[in-house]
Amino acid sequence: MAEPGSNRAPETGAFFQRDRQWHPPAFTPNYKSSVLRSPQKALLSFDNTLSERTGPVFGHAMLGELDNDLIHNFARPGESAIGERIIVHGRVLDERGKGVPGVLLEFWQANAGGRYRHKKDGYLAPLDPNFGGCGRTITGEDGGYAFRTVRPGPYPWPNGPNDWRPAHIHFSVFGHGFAQRLITQMYFEGDPLIWRCPIVGGISNKEAIEALIAALDMQSTIPMDAIAYRFDIVLRGRRSTLFENRPEGN
Amino acid sequence: MAQSLDRLKESPSQTAGPYVHIGLTPNFCGIGGVYASDLGSTMLNGETKGDRIELRIRVLDGTGTPLKDALIEIWQADANGLYNSPAEMRGAADPNFQGWGRQPTDMETGVCRFQTIKPGRVPFRDGRLMAPHITLWIVARGINIGLHTRLYFADEEKANAEDPILARIEHRLRVPTLIAERQGDSYVFDVHLQGEKETVFFDS
After folding, report:
1. What is the C-alpha end-to-end distance of chain A, expressed in Å?
2. Nearest 5°: CA angle at A195, between A194 and A199?
């Protein structure tokens, strides 16, 4: 069924195969948590059925006014989160270069000191009473999105004896088909910790790592308010259904 | 040189990490007041058609220990086998059933519960019917790229026997790794990340 009010014909084709050499493999021993959590047997490969081509729709009506403003969405009235104020913006595209509208983006991050609001985080940096650390938005017609937050701090984590995560924002990306489902992390241009991180290092291709590094975007900053970073996200593309209209035997 | 295909590469995956709850189920981890409720936490209302079932899913690591920091999403057809999706061209799905759910594993027990309905059968590309199934997507600390698999139902023996995806599994002793056992109105499903009983994961 087409989306109500939309004049776009829904796309129904199978998604391009995932390039498993481009993604990090399941087993990346320098990231110790992966050792006992990585499947070891071959994956079962098959072209998408309807179960993978379809996916739920998320409408803009579900969004609250401050959902895309992490500086204020957990803050007491009249107060705001502490830290370097930033705007993160960009587009969600598919592998064909088309903007993808209606994508649910959910993001979460540590505060400016590198501390998460989570009972499992025992880092000595303090919590910010005005910062929760989560936000969400839905892409517009051209696949564009933007949100406002504070730049998260880097933090130490128990992996090697002295491992530090680069500053990062987690992104959950929900496209049109369940096969497009993706979680990734955004890093910041110029952060020297990126190239020392065992989680980032699970990606073997330098270009692939660079695809996760947001660029400083001075043209989009708001003077005397917030600096901007641009981060584009790419989801799997869909094949055309021109030659797939009829199931065999019909 | 030939012409450029002018394609982009998919953004590489990164682990959801140990704090995935902050972003995807903030109310569950004590961050209240940002969203009214956690997205995907309720799949049914009073009008939803179909047989009510509960899924009880655990994810076990290579030592057999349940993960207590994982997050599972499910995606399924309605009771008539229709997806509530713009890419569903066969008809209109039950408007009281979105078909998508999201739950964290319990931080003490590792059990993840979904209250949903038994899905109907959905056709494979050649028109044959697949057995009733629910698509699973699992993320957690230590999982570098979300794991995709399916849950089938033990009491659908005949349908399972003719399911075209189950039929593709070369080592037949691995087929049961995708089949949930019935216990009353619940289906119990253990996902094994490694070992002899490693679940069949998909690349689709």
Report:
1. 22
2. 70
For residue A205, give how far its alpha carbon lies from the nearest alpha carbon of chain B (Å).
10
* 8 Å CB contact of A181 and B99: no
Closest CA to B125 of A177, A238, A16, A49: A49
Q: Could you report the per-residue pLDDT of A198-232, keeping only the tens digit for each? A: 999 999 999 999 999 999 999 999 999 999 999 99
Domains present along chain A, CATH in parentheses: 49-235 (2.60.130.10)
CB–CB contact A107 B23 (8 Å): yes
Q: What percent of chain A has pLDDT over 70?
A: 93
What pLDDT sits at residue B1?
87
Check residue A250 and give its pLDDT.
34
By annotation, the residues of A acting in catalysis are 116, 155, 165, 168, 170
pLDDT digits (tens, 9 = 90+) for A139-185: 999 999 999 999 999 999 999 999 999 999 999 999 999 999 999 99
> Checking phi first, is residue A5 left (phi over 0); if not, alpha (psi -120 to 50) or beta?
left
Chain B interface includes A156 (CB < 8 A): no
**Contact residues on chain B for A41, CB-CB shorter than 8 A:** 174, 198, 200-201
User: Smallest CA–CA separation between B108 and chain A, in Å?
Assistant: 13
Q: Is A56 helix (H, G, I), strand (E, B) or coil?
A: coil
Per this entry, what is the length of chain A? 250
CA of A201 vs chain B CAs: smallest distance (Å): 10
* Percent of chain A's residues with pLDDT above 90: 90
CATH of domain B20-192: 2.60.130.10
CB proximity A25 to B under 8 Å = yes
Q: Is A35 part of the contact surface with chain B (CB cutoff 8 Å)?
A: yes
**Are the C-beta atoms of B87 and A11 separated by less than 8 Å?**
yes
What is the distance between the alpha carbons of residues A246 and A191, in angstroms, rounded to a whole number?
51
CA pair distance A79, A110, nearest whole angstrom = 19
Cα separation, B59 vs B102, whole angstroms = 15
pLDDT at A63: 97
Choose among A74, A64, A68: nearest CA to A106: A68
